[in-house]
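I had to read the description of the data format several times before I understood it. Each protein is reduced to its one-letter sequence and a matching series of backbone shape codes. The format is easy to grasp once an entry is in front of the reader. For illustration, here is how one protein appears when written out as sequence plus structure tokens:
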Amino acid sequence: MVKRNFDGDDVSENEDDEYLLRSQEVSWTISQGGRTFSYTVKIRISRGLDFETVKKIDATLYFQTKEVGTLRGTILPRPTNIFYEMADASSSELQRLSNMFCDRNGHATRIEGTGMPLEDVHRGGFFHIAMMRVQEDHKGRDVGLHMLHHVLVVLKDDWKLIVLEACPQLERLGFSVDPDPYADTGFTPEQKKRLKDATVTLERHYARMGFQQAGRNTDAFDVWFLTAFNYFQNTALEPSAHWQSKEDVQNLDVYEPPEKHQSQGLDLELQKLIQARAPWPKITALIRKGASVHGSRALFILVANTINGEQQEHISPTLQALAGLGDVNEGNEDGNRLLHMAASSNHSALIRFLISVGANKSLTNENGHTPLDCLESSRQSYADYFATFDLKNSRPMDVIPHLNSGLALMPSDLCSVLIDGWLSPRMLYAFECTVGCVMSGMEDHHMVFKKNKATSLKDCCDYPGMSRIEYIPTAVLQRNSEGLYKSFADGWEIVWTAIMVILSKKKNAPTLSRIRNEIHSGAGYDLRKWSHFVQKGGKIDYAIDALTKITETVVLNGDDGWEYCMHEDDIRALPATPFDKSFDLAKVKCLELTNENFPAQPKGPYRHNIFSSSEDSDDNDY
């Protein structure tokens, strides 16, 4: 039996803590075996050290006056365009989970089956429980579940989605280090089994509260989540009314990764030779004795060595020779083939080699993913990394291998729909929408600019102002301190008109050279106004930067001048390709970037604080 006693007043014992937002105590009793046990949890909610909108949760559990348990967690606000940065500042575990569940703005769109209302998908606290511990002698009373429940109730208005990694208390199992029960870590089979059993027991414990496994695969099996929508559908105050019984979850189907393959006998000897990079004659001699290429996982080891090697274009002679003796389409325990590994690492040379020796591009792993799907996940991880650290440079050395890998893995009929070998029909359509939106904003230029009279920079930047002026660097505007003339705005419009002609009429990619050639083609563009625009610091580069960045924001977030949902049906009717969201590739191709000139690319949008010194502007790195 549980009795709950809420003290609604904040605890004031830590009033001198400048980071403390609020605190609260909750007490309850549990009756068991004719005895009554009294517990209290003290919950502290503090603001983060690096980001004030992040909340740090510290809960301490007491039995009478003795500390017997703890809970630690972090709540990230959503939506925010620094969601990944906040997660990374907290812990690597939170960074991993934020990437798994949410996009860069915190929209929880990457895990299916959450059952969250649309509002909760896009906003509300993302609560990561980093640690929860209860002393051994209090086991069997559901004390941990009660503590967690009371924390959830106290923080009811602060969270919409909870995530955690299920990890048992290792000291109870006699482990002095943190092992991985699903990897070859040197622990005995008995130790691994003990840890796996304890992990499954803990996972079923969380399942009693309604936690769900994030995925039935090796990437997500150890992650569990709970939504506020599901948990608080039952409004009863009694905690156990929210939970299933221990008996109910005994038959719960919890996914466990398959055991890792352990090579034996001659296969193990061959594996060691491969790992030691032994000479080819020794390898072939062992194979003639009966060692299995697949049983030794020789090809997987060689592919991993190639992926981790310094020479990205180098395929070792051993791999080239051994590929002819083994089956390049054999899968490992997860159903991954060699081609899945190469695609996940975006190793274009390895992908091309494996396909040349018979690797099947259509085979799927346990997640139902083809190598092309794995390549897309690799691209997404790359984009997440850049978003986490707010890295704005698109680098050819990063994106061109992805292009080459995608072209190698795509069906030939799908390759044929690409414009210039990279621009997808869906991105072309979205680009046209962006240009149309920008040019519609230029219809108000007559209200802002007068002939032969400079318009102040303040008026240019205020509404209605100059359309998408935030993509022209602040430093350029400041060099025109007297203001901008109508010829400058007309020159900006000339760039966008040329882009529209290239996209809509010629159905080509709007590259720097094509835009420049279109403007000077004699097709009626006012070159006098264009010359004024260039003399005052205007560049085609700024419009390309705006085109790619605005379109990316719309496609990923839904709105930036035009709404994706209004065109979604038309976009989805076009062929889907791996490059539909490769805006870093679009920027490299359209700006004609190289490994030498990429640092000079524009990095808009800029916040124009034109009344401050140039040292205070946001584009000092441009």
